[in-house]
């Protein structure tokens, strides 16, 4: 069996993370968004009208698709149509899109995310994880319910690719696997790999 980290450019497109800094002219769009925020997307306030939003690309697509009544979703779609058009072109409304003027978005590259405080870094620094092994062990990986893609035939060897921020990986994947006799060694190896990448978050 194998459990290890993947580089960001090795991830399937839908699992590649996007980290955005968002500024708003008022708090209203932010409050309405926070009320509907799904588990796979992380948001943190920087101040009253600025916050960080991050998640795998497919989770952000779903956020837009399921919340087009929100000003925030329209603003995010307008921004991504400029910077990542292939990702969201199919979500453009038929009657056109007028992005709100009081929302501003900017993509944070990974190097900038690494310079965040340890608390913010743990929530917005994403890692790809690859599992290769038998289906019986693959089930343990999937129990994490983190965003994933799975390959291979049912009943045979499986490959699973996950994408999540550091905090979610520790809580939903590493900790449960450490308690599993079959994958404890692999979980320990993954923990050490994450510690090398973000020592200030893990000590």
Describe this entry's structure for a reader.
By secondary structure, this protein is an alpha+beta fold. It folds into two domains: 2-9 and 123-202, Alpha-Beta Plaits (2-Layer Sandwich), CATH 3.30.70; 16-116, no CATH class. The protein has ten helices and eight strands. The protein has a four-stranded antiparallel β-sheet with strand order 1-6-8-7. A four-stranded antiparallel β-sheet has the order 3-4-2-5, sandwiched between helices. Strand 3 and strand 4 form a beta hairpin. Helix 8 (166-178) packs antiparallel against helix 9. The radius of gyration is 18 Å and the shape is globular. The mean pLDDT is 90.
How many distinct domains?
Answer: 2
Termini separation comes to 27 Å
Percentage of residues in helical conformation: 40-55%
Q: DSSP helix count?
A: 10
Give a short account of the largest sheet.
4 strands, antiparallel
Order of helices and strands: EEHEEHHHEHHEHEEHHH
Secondary structure elements and pairings:
Blueprint (H helix, E strand, L loop, with lengths): L1 E5 L10 E8 L3 H9 L5 E6 L2 E7 H10 L4 H13 L1 H4 L14 E5 L2 H5 L3 H7 L1 E9 H8 L5 E4 L5 E9 H13 L5 H14 L1 H4 L1
Helix pairs in contact: 8-9
List keywords for this structure.
203 residues; Alpha-Beta Plaits; 2 domains; 4-stranded antiparallel sheet; 10 helices; 43% helix
Entry summary:
The chain has 203 residues and is α+β, with helices and mostly antiparallel strands. Helices cover 43% and strands 26% of the residues.
């Amino acid at each position: 069996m194998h459990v290890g980290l993947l580089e960001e450019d090795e991830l399937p497109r839908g699992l590649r993370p996007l980290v955005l800094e968002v500024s708003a002219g008022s708090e209203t769009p932010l409050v309405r968004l926070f009320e509907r925020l799904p588990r796979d997307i992380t948001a943190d306030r920087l101040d009253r009208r600025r916050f960080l939003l991050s998640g795998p690309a497919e989770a952000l697509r779903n956020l837009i698709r399921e919340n087009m009544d929100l000003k925030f979703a329209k603003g995010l779609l307008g921004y991504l149509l400029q910077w990542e058009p292939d990702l969201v072109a199919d979500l453009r409304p038929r009657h056109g899109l007028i992005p709100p003027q009081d929302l501003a978005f900017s993509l944070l590259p990974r190097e900038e995310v690494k310079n965040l405080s340890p608390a913010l870094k743990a929530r917005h620094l994403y890692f790809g994880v690859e599992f290769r092994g038998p289906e019986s062990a693959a089930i343990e990986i999937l129990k994490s319910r983190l965003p994933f893609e799975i390959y291979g035939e049912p009943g045979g060897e499986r490959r699973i690719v996950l994408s999540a921020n550091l905090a979610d990986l520790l809580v939903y994947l590493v900790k449960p696997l450490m308690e599993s006799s079959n994958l404890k060694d692999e979980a320990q190896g993954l923990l050490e790999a994450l510690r090398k990448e973000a020592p200030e978050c893990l000590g």
